[in-house]
Specification:
228 residues; elongated; 11 strands; 2 domains; wza like fold; single chain; 6-stranded mixed β-sheet; 3-stranded antiparallel β-sheet; Outer membrane lipoprotein wza fold like
């Protein structure tokens, strides 16, 4: 009788259909990601002050060395003196070193540069998280991941009050995000870039959204503002 009742219940259950935000597929298991799903889109990793890099000059061992970029973003090497490394990718710096060495007694120099340790490519997270601080930025860094790096939200954190501060073309901008909405899948987990500042909970930056949010609750999308 129990089995019959269960079957009757299943038979009477309304079939789940698609909606504007949800497409139901005829599968019983979540498919595995393919290779492209497992790699993030490339973001250039830029060299900044106090980063540690490894410079190798093929067949010129005396020029190959590990060094730290100085506070002004420059490195110093024999034969060529100082080279501006700030804001360059590893390959761009390698080409700059090759160009400088070409005119200083090294025939057809072949240079490779690797970033050993980056202290300039970081995001700052502050406010109602367990461990506020600076965290390194990788290609796959997102808002949820940086919060996880900070050991998660604190006990009484306001998950609907998360602000990302970012400078775009010398203009300060702010985005207001709702962690609960991201967890529900209401919108995508936003990517995080170097020099972003993430603030969880009430803050002066959060208050600039007060009037807007009172008129349009943060449900369907983040709110973006230009800071004057």
């Amino acid at each position: 009788m129990v089995i019959a009742a269960a079957l009757a219940g299943c038979a009477g259950r309304e079939r789940i259909t698609s909606s504007p935000r949800l497409t139901v597929v005829e599968q019983t298991t979540l498919p595995a990601p393919d290779r492209t799903d497992l790699t993030a889109a490339d973001r250039p990793s830029l060299i900044g002050p106090l980063d540690t890099i490894q410079v190798d000059v093929f067949n010129v061992a005396e020029l190959s060395r590990e060094m730290q970029v100085d506070a002004s973003g420059r490195i110093s090497m024999p034969l060529i003196g100082t080279v501006d490394a700030r804001g360059k990718t590893a390959s761009e710096l390698a080409r700059a070193i090759e160009a400088a060495l070409t005119g200083n007694y090294v025939r057809n120099p072949q240079v490779t540069v690797n970033i050993r340790n980056s202290v300039s490519q970081v995001v700052t997270i502050d406010g109602q998280v367990v461990e506020p601080g600076l965290y390194p930025v990788t290609n796959q860094m997102t808002l949820m991941r940086v919060i996880a790096s900070a050991k998660g939200l604190s006990e009484f954190a306001r998950a609907d009050d998360v602000v990302i501060l970012r400078t775009v073309n010398n203009q300060r901008m702010a985005g207001l995000y709702n962690i609960a909405a991201i967890r529900r899948g209401s919108y995508d987990d936003p990517p995080i870039y170097a020099n972003d500042v993430v603030i969880v909970g009430d803050s002066p930056q959060r208050r600039i959204f007060r009037d807007v949010v009172s008129l349009a609750p943060l449900l369907a999308a983040p709110l973006i503002a230009v800071l004057q």
